[in-house]
Amino acid sequence: MTGTAVVTVVHDRHDHLARQRASLALSSCAPDHHVVVAVDDPVVAAADWCATSLPADPLGLPIAAARNRGAEVAIARGADVLVFLDVDCLVDPGLVAAYADVVRDEPRTVWSGPVTYLERPPPGGYDLATLTALDSPHPARPAPGFGVRIRGADPDLFWSLSFACSVDAWRRIGGFCEDYVGYGGEDTDFARTIANSALDLGWVGDARAYHQWHPVSRPPVEHVDDIVRNAEIYRRRWGTTPMLGWLEAFEQRGLVSRGDDGEWLAVPPGAAGQ
C-alpha cells in the first residue's frame, strides 16, 4: 500500500474548493487521491470527483465523522499517507511532497504545516502562482522555515486546518471522536488522543498552506450552542475545558453561564441581559 491522499471536507464553500483543487493541480508532486467528502451538500455530492457524502446531523455538521469517512475512503484506495486540508486552504506547490516525505521518514509523528491567513482577494482572485510571496504564518502557531522540522510540539497548538499522518498512526489514534458535532472541540480532542497514544506531534516548514479569506465573527457567536455542547463533551472525556477564551467572551455578553459543577451552559434565547 503506497500513495498520498488529501482529504477535504466541504459544505457550501464551492469557490474555495475549486481554488483548492486548482492549487493542488500546481503541486510539484500531485496527490495520488483527492478525497472530497460532501457534508449536506448535494451539489458537491453529485460531482463525479466527489468521493463520498454525509447528511447533516440534527445538531449540526458532523465534521469529525466526515474526516473519518474520508480517511476510510483514502485507505481503501491504497493510501499510506493521509493529508487533511480544510476546504479554505490553498497549498504551496511543495506541500503534498513535504508531507509525504516527512510522514514516511517519521511515521509515528503527526505533522502540521504553517498556515498563512490571506487578506480579502483582489478582484481577479488570488494568483496561485505567487502565493509564496504572501507567506506570513499565523503568529499563534509554530512557523518553522523551509527545510526545518520541529518535534515534540504542544498538543494545545494543534490545528486541523492542515496536517498529515501515516495510516498506522491514524489507526493507533482511532480517528476523530464522533461525539463532537458542529463547531469546535474535535481537533483539540484529537491532539490529546495523539499525546496519549505514544505518538509525537511535529511541525514541518515545507508544508505551507494559505487560508482563503472569509468573514468571521469574533467570538463566533453563531456557534454558541455547538461550542458549549462540545466543551462539555471534552470536559467529560479529559477533565479540563477547552475553548475558554471563547466561552469567557460569551459569558461577558450574557450568552453563557457557569453551573455549580463548572459546566458551561447556554443562556436561553431572550434571557440574556435579563
From TrEMBL:
Superkingdom, natural source: Bacteria
Pathway, per record: Cell wall biogenesis; cell wall polysaccharide biosynthesis
Transferase keyword on record: yes
Family matches, as Pfam families: Glyco_transf_7C (PF02709)
Domain Galactosyltransferase C-terminal: 162-202
Any one GO MF annotation of this record: glycosyltransferase activity
Keyword Glycosyltransferase recorded: yes
Swiss-Prot/TrEMBL keywords: Glycosyltransferase, Transferase
InterPro entries: Galactosyl_T_C (IPR027791), Nucleotide-diphossugar_trans (IPR029044)
Family membership noted in the UniProt record: Belongs to the glycosyltransferase 2 family.
Protein name, as recorded: Glycosyltransferase family 2 protein
Protein species of origin: Nocardioides glacieisoli
Lineage of origin: Bacteria, Bacillati, Actinomycetota, Actinomycetes, Propionibacteriales
